[in-house]
Amino acid sequence: MPTQAREIFEAQSKSLRELLSDNGLGLYLPPYQRPYGWGKDKVEKLLDDTLHGLKNLGEAPDSFTFLGTVITIHDVNHVTVQPIVKPEVPSKVLTVIDGQQRLSSLLLLLVSLHNLTRQHSWKVFKGKTPDSTDTARASLYSETVGILQTLSTAFYERKNFGDAPIYPRLIRAFVDQWSKDAKLKQYESPIANLIYTYSVEADAEPPTVKPTDFRPLARPGAGEGEGDLIRRFGEIRAALTKLAQRTTIEELEDLPPLSTLANQIEFQRALFNHELDPKLCRWLRELEDEPEAVLMRLVMFAAYVLNRIALTVVQGKDEDYAFTIFESLNTTGEPLTAFETFLPRVVMAEKVQDYRGSDAHERMKAVQSYLDRFGVGEKLQNATRELLVTFALAETAKKLSKRLSDQRVYMKDTFDNHKDSVDARAAYLRHLSDTATFVGTTWEPAKEAPRQLVGLPASAMTDTVKLCLAFLNDLNHTIAIAPLLRFYSEAVHAEEGEERDKRIAEFEKAIKATTAFTVFWRATRSGTGNIDSQYRSVMAGDSLTGMGPLARAVSNSEQPKPTVDAEALKEELAARLSNTDKKYGGIPNLASFLAAAKSLPLYKNSRPLTRFLLLAAYHDTIEDPDNPGLIKQGKAGVAPCFTSDGWSDETHFTIEHIAPQQATGGWDQDFYSEKGIADKIVHKIGNLVLAPGAANTSLSSRPWTEKKVLYAALGATTTEEAKTILNDSGLAFAQSTEELAQMSRYLPHLRALGQRDAEWDPAFMDRRAEVLLRLAYARLKGWLGIAWSESTTDPVAHHVDDEVEPDEDDESAENLV
């Protein structure tokens, strides 16, 4: 007989009293639940929703305040409870899969109501039972005592024996433990400690003694979330005090007047399940600000909270079904991220009782630590989406959408493929952890934190690696994370020694190849040129060179095993760049690269790309005396700028236009003559220069004859030389000579511009563009292992195995210019 839905789960709507005052009930928070984190706004909304429902009850006796669904497992065998004193566990344990934030907040509300009601009851009755002949006061006393008893049973249960008979209704795994033995009981979580501390205090004080006012403080070194919990408790207390005293709170509705309660029998029945004594009702109509009125308002509000706040409690048959329901519902107003719905699956696979302290727990803590940076809301959602898109590409070469439902299904299905194998499951979770670590500390570290390669020696973060990471990140080239992650992960988990060193070197080769490929590809296209599809093909093993898939777990028996090899990656990327098929790069030789790159408005297409090309071109160059205005390759160290410091030094290296963006006097009008074309001409690389940004007000739109003087001064070898150049020019600038001279630094590319006496025109701009692009090519070609032919008829881009870096002994770069 097929399984019926009612056998899988049951759902019942219950009032707060029905749910929490059930004899033998214990609510249990499993270890994957987040700490308490409700903000003041959420508590205010909870109170306002409750007040709104109470107000509506005066008009409609069937009014309830419905607070959504709580998803639980009825843990009959107590498999989720850890630690445990088995004989002393409550008879009915509900493990809370979803809804702990609301339940915790409601328990804070109940404790606060109990505390305030006790305080105000003392003000009215001084611990003495009223004379039975005073019917109104006796009735108020009776209602107060009844509500206090019902409130207390909602947040704790008192056992009949033992030296620790108080059981908080809600506790948390690992840090709390129910027991009637004082030596074994343990209530260290913020919520369990608050409930237990107050319950013991309230339970021990006889009604004839003035009750202690409960004002909890956060404990030093207490668990995460205690500060928020204590603050919310204080805010609830303050709000209830004002409401009971009829003080208006701008964010909240007011309590109904006591006359409404006194005049409407249906209202009384809905709140208390009985009618109030008529004499009490007559008295209530007369009360305004007396202590009795304050007390009755608290009693009225408490009765509504207990009897008219409703929750739908879903009890799953077991963890699998409960988690399925959990994944399909959004009960908090904020969608659960795909990681939040995935985490319980990991706990299930590891077994709840074994999860804490396991390798899986440590892996998931690493992921959670990264995501915690984003708090809650849309930032967290976006960060999770991006993380899982990267993980899916690195794990299975999947182009995962950012749709929440798709991401949930992907994480469920791919994890389930491994859940029966301890080793396969561990490898999957390790890769997910590596993804979060790489994204959060290497790709985009937290604010003010330096980039680092966690798990590798500091020496692995070479200056070139830092430069490439900074560039790719500024380019927002997130597609590159997945291939880089594969090399990083291999290095982190390699055995220390030669194998680790080899893998670290492989990582650097891979990031250089990736960077060079990206630069050459993007520099020859108006947009991205569908570069993402190239990387996805590499990850999937759709190869031009026979390279295996780069993704960790591509499920295709016909493909070779995953290949994490930097030389293979270089060959594959070089082949894609050089292949003339329309779906590939179409750059088979140097001439095609130069022709495409110098004709594009690179400044408009991508400023990070433009800046990277210029820095690569400028590095260790000198002025070309045979070609004033141009530069050529110099000796190593003569003018270093293609470094991580150079990339971050926007003080000296800000992109400026030589011929201004808008037509002005003193410039060749061919830059602006053709309508619609000028906008492209001035943005070409030949018309761009890296110069101190602070000098822009002086450079501005000056004519070429004046601008070149400034270039010469800004690129001078010394401050004194800069002053001489400026003073001898006889020109006045927006900034003082002293200010401009202080900006100077030996920058051959600026000094060279100052040496050009002839006009600045589009023809010379194109000539300069070719020089710059050849220098950049010479700098980057070894990173990708290519040696392009000069010939436009030669379709072959030769692959070179050894990287060639131009230096003082390498004439190839100088010969190119």
From TrEMBL:
Transmembrane segments: none
Pfam families documented for this protein: GmrSD_C, GmrSD_N
Lineage: Bacteria, Bacillati, Actinomycetota, Actinomycetes, Streptosporangiales
UniProt name for this protein: DUF262 domain-containing protein
Domain of life: Bacteria
Ranges where the GmrSD restriction endonucleases C-terminal domain occurs: 596-774
Species this chain originates from: Streptosporangium minutum
All residue ranges annotated as the GmrSD restriction endonucleases N-terminal domain in the record: 17-342
